[in-house]
């Protein structure tokens, strides 16, 4: 769990791990030099032996924070949980069982339900058939929801963890690097994912550009370019921006329809 200025939500997120019906876990929280009361909130859990807190002196970004946790992790599996999200009690048990049952899987995610000050939780719908997920990998789309992902530790370390040079879309960049491995999404909702609504068009366009940057960096690295030769900033693309506008319109229509039910 990487955290930066999450004092309003992190206690609830940590509490959701303490309430798991699966006991064999360790929670590594990397405090990315928070300037609010996050450190004080974390001190409330100092008596819990299964929770480790690593505090950084300098704000370094979520990619750096997560990679530190990956290096420190002792477990066979790595479950992602953002410091404002909620893991349902059966999450760790069901996902670890899925990875145990199929050693060829590099990651298992689950459905997420969005919630926030606007309401919720409202379940989303991600593909669950292995064929559909593999098709998304081949077409360089996000194959599974990262907020609910549980990875095989060895696979994440094999590809070098998160791309610290991607300021956004680090989750997508990681899953691109794992596109040569099978991943899966379970049918159950196992994470409540905190969001803001409505989502602004500028936010969606910016995220779309960074997702394309992640694709570009991955494709160039596959062609043998060195890390220093890879682009660091996204470029404007009419095609990318139009796709973002389309997804924003569809999302807003779905939210409006859902709010009327």
Summary tags:
2 domains; Spore Coat Polysaccharide Biosynthesis Protein SpsA, Chain A; alpha/beta; 9 strands; 9 helices; single chain
Strands, helices and their partners?
Layout lengths: L1 E2 L6 H9 L8 E5 L6 H6 L7 E5 L6 H11 L4 E3 L6 E2 L3 H11 L3 E12 L2 E5 L6 H9 L11 E3 H6 L11 H8 L4 E13 L6 H22 L15 H23 L1
Parallel strand pairs: 1-2, 2-3, 6-9
Antiparallel strand pairs: 4-8, 5-9, 6-7, 6-8
Helix pairs in contact: 7-8, 8-9
Brief overview:
With 261 residues, this protein is α/β, with parallel strands linked by helices.
Give an account of the 3D structure:
The protein has 261 residues and is an alpha/beta fold. 40% of the residues lie in helices and 19% in strands. It has 9 helices and 9 strands. Strands 4, 5, 6, 7, 8 and 9 form a 6-stranded mixed β-sheet that branches. A hairpin with a 2-residue loop joins β6 and β7. The protein starts with a strand and ends with a helix. The model has no long low-confidence stretch (mean pLDDT 95).
Distance between the termini: 35 Å
| Helix/strand structural class | alpha/beta
Q: What is the 3D shape?
A: globular
CATH topology of the largest domain: Spore Coat Polysaccharide Biosynthesis Protein SpsA, Chain A
CATH hierarchy class name of the largest domain: Alpha Beta
CATH superfamily of the largest domain: Spore Coat Polysaccharide Biosynthesis Protein SpsA, Chain A
Portion in strands: 15-25%
CA-based gyration radius: 18 Å
State the low-pLDDT regions, or none: none
Oligomer type: single chain
Overall mean confidence score, pLDDT:
95
Count all strands and give the number: 9
Task: Describe the largest sheet.
Answer: 6 strands, mixed
Helix content: 40-55%
Q: Please report the number of helical segments.
A: 9
Order of helices and strands: EHEHEHEEHEEHEHHEHH
Organism: Rhodococcus rhodochrous
Keywords: Glycosyltransferase, Transferase
InterPro entries: Glyco_trans_2-like, Glycosyltransf_2, Nucleotide-diphossugar_trans
Pfam family, one: Glycos_transf_2
């Amino acid at each position: 769990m990487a955290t930066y200025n999450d004092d309003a939500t992190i206690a609830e997120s940590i509490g959701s791990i303490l309430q798991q019906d699966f006991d064999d876990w360790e929670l590594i929280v990397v405090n990315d030099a928070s300037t609010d009361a996050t450190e004080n909130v974390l001190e409330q859990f100092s008596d819990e032996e299964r929770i480790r807190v690593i505090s950084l002196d300098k704000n370094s970004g979520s990619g750096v924070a997560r990679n530190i946790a990956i290096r420190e992790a002792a477990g066979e599996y790595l479950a992602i949980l953002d410091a404002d999200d909620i893991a349902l009690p059966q999450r760790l048990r069901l996902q670890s069982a899925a990875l145990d049952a199929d050693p060829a899987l590099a990651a298992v995610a689950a459905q997420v339900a969005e919630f926030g000050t606007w309401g919720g939780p409202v379940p989303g719908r991600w593909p669950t058939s292995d064929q559909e997920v593999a098709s998304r990998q081949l077409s360089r789309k996000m194959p599974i929801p990262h907020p609910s992902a549980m990875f095989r530790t060895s696979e994440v370390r094999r590809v070098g963890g998160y791309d610290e040079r991607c300021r956004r879309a680090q989750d997508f960049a990681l899953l691109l690097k794992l596109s040569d491995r099978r991943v899966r999404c379970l049918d159950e909702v196992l994470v409540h994912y905190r969001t803001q609504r409505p989502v602004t068009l500028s936010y969606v366009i910016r995220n779309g550009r960074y997702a394309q940057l992640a694709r570009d960096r991955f494709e160039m690295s596959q062609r043998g370019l060195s890390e220093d030769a890879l682009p660091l900033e996204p470029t404007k693309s009419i095609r990318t921006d139009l796709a973002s506008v389309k997804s924003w319109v569809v999302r807003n229509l779905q939210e409006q329809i859902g709010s009327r039910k």
